[in-house]
Amino acid sequence: MPYNREIIASIAFEHDPVHSKRLSKENATNESAADPHDNQDNAGNLGPQQNEATRNIISCMKWALAQSITSISHPAKQRPLNPKKDFTIETKIEVKVRNNQGPGLSCCGASGVKRSRAPAFSIRESGDDIMDVEESDDESENDTDSLPVSFTFIDYSPMCYHHIREFFKIDPRAYCDVLMRSRWHSTPTPGKSAAQLFFCGKDWVIKTMTNEESEFLRSILHRYYFFVLDNPYTLLPHFVGHHRLEIEGEKINIIIMQNVFATGNTIHEKYDLKGSTVGRFATEAEKMKHTCTQKDLDLNRPIHVGPARRALLIDQIKKDCDFLRRSNVMDYSFLVGIHVLPTHNHRWMGNTQSGGKDGFQGTLPFHALALDGTIAGVFSEQQMNATTSMYGVTQPEVAIDGRCFTSDQGGMLSTEQPGTQREIYYIGIIDILQEYNVRKRLETLVIGSLKDREKISSVPPREYASRFLSFMSSIIA
């Protein structure tokens, strides 16, 4: 590699600050605490229905994302990452629609926008930084009938995120197809902020961001990029796209990330854990909802993963916390989704990263399923022991690595505990864009004077990371 990662990671890259109205409050948000299956199965019960303004925004986002992903994935554009410009570069798509009769739009705000037929457009690329969109009279050239208004789409660091998607083995065609063809199920975040979540298929979460969060992500992107490359099994969010939509005066920041609960299994319980105790419980009214995300004081049992996987998990959490501490981040959470297995399905969980519910449908021992050693995941100790005892043979001990975090139907199969059902845990660290800024320092000072400072959420990054790691170590067995 022609550059030194440590030097690159120590540089504070500059970018042009963006001055615009804030879409939502600046509180920390839960990036994926809602269950995607609840959104898909109960789309009519998600709170505010998608009004026409929201649908228009989604239409514009889908169209622009298709152009952006197709362009950056073109074979002629493939090249190594340039650390001098690819972390800060912006590409822009501008679409102008004639005869637009709609008033100003706001994401999930007041409706009442009138549709007008949009002309077709052609796209020509004028350079590495700008994509110009020109009007065309050929309506067959692009499908733009769904574009209701003029808008500007900004793609932040597209080559960097393209490399991240490649690193996570995300097929660009499949990624683009899901974003374009799947319905975006919207729901407000369960936290205190006014951010909006959109679930696209089972794999992707699209979340609105404040300007503060957007600018902060751009400032740490170079560090995040190299950390992910050095830690392929990180529990941090897998950010795969960062965008901005400017539409009729509204400026909307968007981050696209992989869903922690990317599985076909039902998530029976969800926990958002910080390691603090002040106010960290779900109300009785919240617990009555099947979509409830519980908190630290609601957790009444350990997460049973066994000694070997526990050591790997704690080590990865420590690495992730060290990165967040160095990036001056706090107020993040450990998201846990629990799928409780039926009593007849304890054996043969197998590796089903595709999200299937039934695991392997055969009875071959695990070594027969991975003769070349290139399995996508790793079997847990319990699976190997069960297989060994079933066939009465002694298998050589197999080393495990971070792939075990997602090797059991996309999660981690629990160890057997007397009197309990087996579970699958889906885990991740979320809400990593809250910098310990002046507002948070004041919050520490004020709330810390009223409550026990060691138990509140808003504490300096070093203290937060230490407490977070200590708490996770205490609940993982």
UniProtKB/TrEMBL annotation:
Residue stretches making up the PIPK domain: 93-476
Organism: Trypanosoma theileri
Biased composition (Polar residues): 41-50
Any GO MF annotation of the entry: 1-phosphatidylinositol-4-phosphate 5-kinase activity
SMART domains: PIPKc (SM00330)
Coiled-coil region list: none
Biological process per Gene Ontology, one example term: phosphatidylinositol phosphate biosynthetic process
Annotated CDD domains: PIPKc (cd00139)
Cellular component terms (Gene Ontology): plasma membrane
Keyword Transferase in annotation: yes
Top-level taxon of origin: Eukaryota
Protein name: Putative phosphatidylinositol-4-phosphate 5-kinase-like
Keyword Nucleotide-binding: yes
InterPro entries the record matches: PInositol-4-P-4/5-kinase_C_sf, PInositol-4-P-4/5-kinase_core, PInositol-4-P-5-kinase_N, PInositol-4/5-P-5/4-kinase
Region (Disordered) location: 19-50
Upper lineage: Eukaryota, Discoba, Euglenozoa, Kinetoplastea, Metakinetoplastina
Keywords carried by this UniProt record: ATP-binding, Kinase, Nucleotide-binding, Transferase
